[in-house]
Design a protein that fits this description.
46% of the residues lie in helices and 12% in strands. It is an alpha/beta fold. A four-stranded parallel beta sheet has the order 5-4-6-7, with helices on both faces. The longest helix has 16 residues.
């Protein structure tokens, strides 16, 4: 039978033929109550049929926090890593009856606090927070973590005979700028390569062209550019084309954290793809205090195209 308005516990109780209290015990999975399997299944079936949704405010008051998890994604972290991480986090939270709220960009601390005070979230996460706080990579990081993924760029170029490599960086600091640069330099050291050169590729187009020209003039031995991300890699490709340099014959270019635009460039951009869906699921379970033993991060991989 069609009905209007919000479905309540009373509606579910009437449909399942039990008391309102019994419905509450079943839907909240109260461990202190003994409910028969048949009654439990009847209540759950009625709730599904009616489309019952728990009242978030009431649940927050009862549990001391809402079933909302907040994720802060800083500017400059948009890519396949963040998209796949959010996907895994969202799906895992939903599987445990929680909701994800994602905040992008920067906000004044007082504004953020007002939001948190209003929704009383179960947990507040920040993408990449451990590395922003100076986390030192361990063996696992170098085997399949962030350090490993950052090192893929350098290793790929080294395997193809490039020993003099420059890191193409953004024109302003992002939260993970220093961590990325540090991991790339350590990867070069481990491979026995000369120290990586570092230069900035700014906007607009002509400024980027001038920066790339100056860097190659100052370091003519450089034969490959490892970019901070795909955005910087595409700026570098444009600058090299404007300078009349052939890619990859004169200078090879490799991006990082694949975006769709790299496959559309000429030449198509070789890059590093990172699938962080499992990391998002791990973060969700950790936020809820659940076991993560059956989940393992997936290492990144190089997407080979024409630019390197």
């Amino acid at each position: 039978m069609a009905r209007s308005g919000r479905v309540t516990l009373t509606d579910v109780a009437k449909a399942s033929g039990v008391s309102r209290a019994t419905v509450s015990f079943v839907l909240n999975d109260d461990p202190r109550q003994t409910i028969s399997t048949a009654t439990r299944e009847r209540v759950l079936a009625a709730a599904r049929e009616l489309g019952y949704v728990p009242h978030g405010i009431a649940r927050a008051l009862r549990e001391g926090a809402s079933r909302i998890v907040v994720l802060n994604v800083d500017q400059g972290l948009e890519g396949n890593f963040s998209r796949s991480y959010v996907l895994g986090l969202d799906e895992e939270l939903a599987a445990h009856d929680h909701v994800l709220l994602v905040r992008h960009g920067r906000a004044a601390p007082e504004n953020l606090q007002r939001i948190l005070d209003a929704i009383a979230p179960r947990a507040v996460l920040r993408l990449g927070e451990a590395y922003m706080q100076g986390h030192e990579p361990d063996d696992e990081d170098w085997e399949r973590g962030f350090a490993f993924n950052a090192g893929l760029q350098i290793g790929y170029l080294a395997e193809r005979g490039h020993s003099h490599i420059a890191m193409a960086m953004p024109d302003h600091d992002f939260p993970l700028t220093e961590a990325r640069l540090g991991f790339a330099r350590e990867a070069a050291r481990r491979l026995g390569l000369p120290s990586l050169r570092r230069f900035v590729v700014p906007r607009p187009r002509r400024a980027g062209e001038a920066a790339v020209a100056a860097a190659l003039a100052a370091h003519p031995e450089v034969t490959a550019l490892a970019a901070f991300d795909d955005d910087i890699a595409l700026r570098s490709l444009t600058a090299l084309r404007d300078l009349g340099r052939q890619v990859p014959d004169d200078v090879a270019v490799i991006g990082f954290d694949e975006t769709e635009y790299g496959s559309l460039s000429t030449p198509a951009l070789t890059t590093v793809r990172i699938d962080a869906e499992v990391l998002g699921r791990i973060a969700a379970r950790e936020a809820l205090g659940l076991d993560t033993g059956d989940l393992a991060p997936v290492p990144g991989r190089v997407v080979v195209r024409a630019s390197a």
